[in-house]
Amino acid sequence: MEKNTLAKFPWSKMSVAGKPATGLVLLGVGLAVAGWGLLGAFGGSGALGGTGGSIGSIGSRGSSLGAGGPIGPRLVLLAVGGVLLVLAAGLRFQAQLRALQAAARQSEALRQTAESDLDHYFSTLPTGAMTIDSQGRTRRFNAKAKELLGLAEEELKRVNWTCPAFQVLKVDGNTLNPLEMPMNVARATGLPATGVVMGLERGEDGDFAWVTCSAHPKRGEDGRVAEVVCILEDGIQHRSAEAELARQSFRDRLTSLPNRALFMERLSQALLRSERLKLFSAVLYLDLDRFKVINDSLSHEIGDQLLVQVAKRYSACLRPEDTVARLGGDEFVVLFGDIHSVNEGLSVADRIAQGNSQPFQIQGHEIFITCSMGIALSACADTGPSELIRDAEVAMYRAKAKGGRSIEVFDPSMNAQALARFQLESDLRRGLERKEFLLYYQPLVGLRSGRLEGWEALIRWQHPEWGMVSPGAFIPLAEETGVIVPLGKWVLEEACRQAALWARAFPSDVSRVMNVNLSGRQFGHRDLTQDVMNAVIRSGLDPHTLKLELTESVMMRDPVASLEAMQVFRGKNIHLVVDDFGTGYSSLSYLKRFPLDTLKIDKSFVDGLGKDPENTGIVTAIISLAHTLGMSVTAEGIETRDQLEHLQQLNCDQGQGYHFSRPLPAEAAEALLARNPTW
After folding, report:
1. Residues 25-52: what's their mean pLDDT?
2. What are the φ and ψ backbone dihedral angles of 628, each rounded to 5 degrees?
3. What is the structure's pLDDT at 51?
4. Residue 198, SS3?
5. Cα–Cα dist 561/408, whole Å
6. CA distances for 284 relative to 325, 393, 403, angstroms
7. Chain centroid to CA 628: how far?
8. What is the pLDDT of residue 589?
9. Dist. CA 231–CA 250, nearest whole Å
10. What pLDDT does 25 receive?
11. What is the pLDDT of residues 213-228, one digit of tens each?
12. Packing angle, helices 260-277 and 385-401, rounded to 10
């Protein structure tokens, strides 16, 4: 062949990684020679196996392999071709290896460049930045991250964020579970976790580094999270803002004490801990006695200041491990955890009661308060937070029903009573709609003439299941729930209607009066004056025959407002009576200030007439004082002839009691009017 014959073949121009493909050329030549030798050695024919070509002719003149003669030229050609094949494969492998090495060097250079760029980017970030691998180890971080976390470089490298060796806190001060840390959330879910404020313990001195952390996952080629990029910012401001939100969510705004939500959370934890330790938890429920009087008489501003001081005083009475919270209004609760008996809670309750003995000084006012308390103990594992608070509240209401200023320990029988009370309240509201209430009338007798001079209207409740219910069983509840306002309005209207009817049916030379009792809540109601005048006008009753009875305590709740209301009634020619005189404030100054017409001597003083010199002296003084101030006197609870005679001797004007008549239903009272008796 000519010298440039191989250059005509296409493989002469082939290259690998930019270099001539010498191996490929040798491979082609080797394959040709080996093939040619094989054809000749095994008796091939044709153009290559015959005698026509130069190489073929050489092969045709040698002896065959099967003849057993010496090695022929064709076998030599076969060996040479094999060697060329091996050399070609080696050269090809070397070329591919050089290409791979070059690619690897290029990839490493790119990686190092990317790493350098990323390190430079991290170092220039104004915030802290670090990367965490799939195992939770810190791999890269900048100087700002070390500064914010308060950790040295080697310390930061050793941190395993899946279970850090230092304490991590939430904004509210509770421990943050490692699974809730943003880098672990992002690593586990593959989703970003942003804006989490957490405190990392810096050392044994209790100092914490507060940071706001946002974590963003990066996935590898297999789609799994390969690392997490964390951005860190100073969390002090965020913590302050979140802490303030948390404080507002879990703290009472007025007193800064824990509110109901926080108290319930702590109570739940205490119950679980007590069950584990085989101990008890207890709740003390406190309600200030007569707090509404302070609010109404002095102002709500002073009432709020009083609540703040009460909260501080109660907190000072507690053990460090106890929690006091304000539920609302004037109601407080105290949690006692891990106690051995209810006596431990009672000792704290005694300290609170003793603390109340000292007055509160507010805006020049010296205020004394008392409170009603109920305590309940977690008796079994089934007792939940709501049930324990409910039991303590039930016990508190038992203490309040006994007059307040005391403490009651809950027992299960109280639940039945509480349910009965709830049922009574429901029946009370429905009773007014169903017209189950009626009025009884007790005669008012002139002690000089012995004649019937009027009536006192007394409410009764004809319950469809329980029969006749006495006022003492439902009036306090009606007062507490506010039902007394519509109930009292009905009493006014019915009493005025009945009095006007009797005045027309049984005329007399002396106008008979109708006394109607007003409760404290009713007297303080804004519509009272209008309700009274509507009842008078609609019934056609002569206003001067209506007398409104008030107790001393009701009048003194708000003396200024009481005086204004009384002056309105006096202007309408409606008379006012002080009921149960001598059992309340007994302040002589108000007798002069208020436009009163009659004093009613309480039954407790009448009982001792002729037997107890002190009672006789008090009754004598009351009658004398009233007459001096231009008022008349009515004695309540006259039951014997002896009491009547003593009162007549003391010049008492009027009396009522079982000696004359028990309270009568309207029909019986009308029959008494028809007889017109004299006592």
Report:
1. 50
2. -65, -35
3. 41
4. strand
5. 36
6. 10, 8, 18
7. 59
8. 74
9. 30
10. 52
11. 999 999 988 999 999 9
12. 110
